[in-house]
Amino acid sequence: MRRIVGAAICSILAAFLLPVQPHPTFAVPSPPAEAAEASLVEAGTVDAPLHESHAADVAAAPASASTHQLLRPEVQRLIQATNWRGSDWGVLAVSLERGDTLVSMESDRPLAPASNQKLFTSAAALERLGPDFRFPTYLLTDGTIEQGVLEGDLILYGTGDPAISDRLLGSASEPFREFAQALTRKGVHTVSGDVIGDGTFFNGPTRHPSWRPNSLDHWYAAPVTALTFNENVVTLRIRPGGPGNRPQVRTVPEGAELPLLNTGVSVTGSPAAPLQVIRNAPDDSIQVRGQMNLRAGEVWRVMTVSDPEAFAASGLRHALAEEGIRVEGASRSLGTGERSSVSGLGLVAPAFIPGSEGRTLRTLAVHRSPPVSELLEVVNRNSHNLYSEALLFALGRITSGDGSFVGGSQALEEFLVRRVEIPGTELSIQDGSGLSNQNRATPSSFVRLLYYVSASPYADTFWASLPEAGNRLELGRMYRSPAAGNLRAKTGTISRVSALSGVVRTGDGDFVLFSVLANNVPSTWGAKRVEDDIGIRLASFVRPAGSGASDPSVIVESGPFGPRLSPQVPVDALR
């Protein structure tokens, strides 16, 4: 029996355009080595004017003279010991129980935060989407099934799931195999039309204009799309062919169809020109050229894909073939000027295809991502840019209908200014990952965010996503120190920028929220040593006898991964 797209897809698409609630209900009910820094590779210098000297600061929290700034002299000595002229540091550490500031240096100066930006995105995603939200990906058709033949196209429609890969699933192709099996159960053995990848749920450029052009082939700068497969990267495996023949090029995942021009030659002697895998621009074809000796070992190259939607469609087509389903058409994305049958103005009645009376869309199968709580572990422990940007685009989509860098950045800034009450002058939001060197934030803005999170219902989920110091699988730094197994923080690294922000428990049991931002440093490795020394000093800090009683208005509980404040605590308590 033919039917229009089910209520599930209607509700999710319509609800993405409704006014934002703290936890929107647009989700379809769901069925019952040290982390790599994603932006570690040089991503550009900080080009905004920054101060060269450390001026006097105003502490972010009130305190008595006996407890205020107890650690500032030590932190100053650690920074000055680097002898880096022209470097710019901002540091803030605030005790939750005592309400005082242990150290504040240039805490209100906007600096490039690198991947500490992900803390902002993570908190907004938990509040706006909720920790249990799952991104659905739909298998749709505009045709009918007659005697085992699906007469029409298959449409693979994404809504932002970044996790169709082997990172959190058994394999990148697992959802596509499930889709193929769903078709087999319906008796389908042939698809007469195309397999179309539709990523129009998001819009705008897939890479931020400020991302460095020479980084766009690398996995950490993968394009951001609503339909993502294998994190929008492909691995090329190249081996020699027969004498005088083209080298053999295989892909991981298998069956991926790519715009690729192979002019290489397999030779018996020394290559006159080395084998090269190049691409002039991220949307151009990949070129394999030069010569490869017959005895050469296999060459591997990981690259971002130029057309993620077509790449995903080819992955589905390959899964269909493995299930014994023949596709007579091609695998492709929507062509230039071709209108999506699902997104756009047809949201009120997405089942109707403009200009095709009598034809309707039907939902054949749905795959749902892991919950946001699990996605955030990838965002923060692996510092994964694509996951973070997918959440940013989703925030823009639910807030204003603009699933792009612009829409997402506006939604994130609105959350930070209106909900967290960070002054807008302290922020410049360009992306959700921190890969852009044009982002700006202050140490006080991060501490204020961490304070806000501590009083939220998702505090445990947020803290759990942050890497743990001394854990070789998370944040191996500060191993065998008082910070090990204690401090949880987000790292950050781009060219000449390093950052560390999070929570640590002192030697006398107080939770301390802290943020360290360093810009214009000649060595990010050296900056991280200073960050570690500050973290260790905070973890081992014990107050002098008789100093600073706890603030009775602040009730701090110890969760499994960090502090939880009484929900009655006002945000102004941090001021």
SSE blueprint:
Elements: H1 7-15, H2 72-80, E1 88-95, E2 101-105, H3 117-128, E3 136-141, E4 144-146, E5 149-151, E6 154-158, H4 174-185, E7 190-191, E8 195-198, E9 233-239, E10 248-252, E11 260-262, E12 265-267, E13 276-278, E14 286-289, E15 291-293, E16 299-304, H5 308-322, E17 326-327, E18 331-333, E19 362-368, H6 372-381, H7 385-400, H8 405-419, H9 443-454, H10 459-465, E20 488-494, E21 497-505, E22 511-519, H11 524-540, E23 556-558, E24 563-565
Parallel strand pairs: 5-7, 6-8, 7-17, 8-18, 11-14, 12-15
Antiparallel strand pairs: 1-2, 1-22, 3-6, 3-19, 4-5, 9-10, 9-16, 13-14, 20-21, 21-22, 23-24
Helix pairs in contact: 3-6, 3-7, 4-5, 6-7, 6-10, 7-8
Give an account of the 3D structure.
With 575 residues, the chain is α/β, with parallel strands linked by helices. It has three domains: 7-32 and 133-209 and 307-368, D-tyrosyl-trna(Tyr) Deacylase, Chain: A (3-Layer(bba) Sandwich); 72-130 and 372-574, 3-Layer(aba) Sandwich (Beta-lactamase); 216-304, no CATH class. 23% of the residues lie in helices and 20% in strands. It has eleven helices and 24 strands. It has helices at 7-15, 72-80, 117-128, 174-185, 308-322, 372-381, 385-400, 405-419, 443-454, 459-465, 524-540, and strands at residues 88-95, 101-105, 136-141, 144-146, 149-151, 154-158, 190-191, 195-198, 233-239, 248-252, 260-262, 265-267, 276-278, 286-289, 291-293, 299-304, 326-327, 331-333, 362-368, 488-494, 497-505, 511-519, 556-558, 563-565. The strands form seven sheets. It has a five-stranded antiparallel sheet with strand order 2-1-22-21-20, with helices on both faces. Helix 3 runs antiparallel to helix 6 (372-381). It is globular. The protein starts with 6 loop residues before the first helix and ends in a 10-residue tail after the last strand. Residues 1-66, 345-353 and 571-575 have low confidence and may be disordered.
